[in-house]
Design goal:
The protein is of the alpha+beta class. It is 49% helix and 18% strand. The protein folds into two domains: 84 residues, no CATH class; 105 residues, no CATH class.
Amino acid sequence: MTPPTLPTPSTLPTPSRLAVSLALPLLLSCMALTACAAAAKRSPEGLRDAYAAALRGDDPDAAYALLAPDVQAQTDIEEFRARWKKNGKQHEAALAAIDAIDDDRKSAVLTGTTTHEGGAVLHWTYTSQGFLVVDGLPGLPDTSTPAATARALIAALRGISSVQLERVLSEDMLENLGDDWDGRADAIEAALAEPGSISYSGDNARAVLRYGAGRTLTFEQTTQGWRVSEIR
C-alpha cells in the first residue's frame, strides 16, 4: 500500500501563489468580458444583441463595456451602475422595442454616395437586391431624413395641378382641398424651422413631426428612405 503524500514546503500555497490563483479567474473573466464587448462592437447587429443581453440580464457592467473608450473615460462606473438601477422602466421599453424589430430592420441599413459628372451626387442604400439609388436622380425627391421627406411633401402639395384635379373633384371640394393643402404645407414648413419639432422612436425606425394646432406627420424608415405613414 502506497503511503499518502504529505505536502512539502514547495507545494504549500504561499501568499503570492494564493494571490495569483485567486486573481487568475478574475483576470480571465475580465478578459472574456472585454473580448465579448469588442466582438459585439464589430457590427451594429452585434452591439444591439449584446445590449439586449445586458438588459435581459440586468447587467450594468456588460452594458458599460459596450461604451466607446472616450465615453467610458467620462463616465464613472459607479455612477453608471446607479443610473442603471433607476432606469428600469426605460430598459423595459428599450428591450420591448428591440424585440419588436421586424425582419426588414434587423440588419443595419448600409448607405453610400457616389459623385458623377457635373457634380451629381447619388445616394445608395443596400437592400436584399443589392445597392439601389434612393436619392439624386433627376426628379427623385430626397427622403434620406424625415425633414427631407417633409420638404419633399411640401413641394408635392404645392405642385399639385388643379387642372388634373378638376377632372375628378367638384369645384367646392377642389377649393377646400386646395386651401387645406396650402395651409398644411405652410404649417409643416414653419415647424421644420423649429428645433426639436421632430421626435424619434426608441429604435429610430419612426419619427413624428408636430405642426400647426396639434397636428402630426408620422414617418417610417424603409430601405428606400423615409416615408410618410400617417398625416393628421
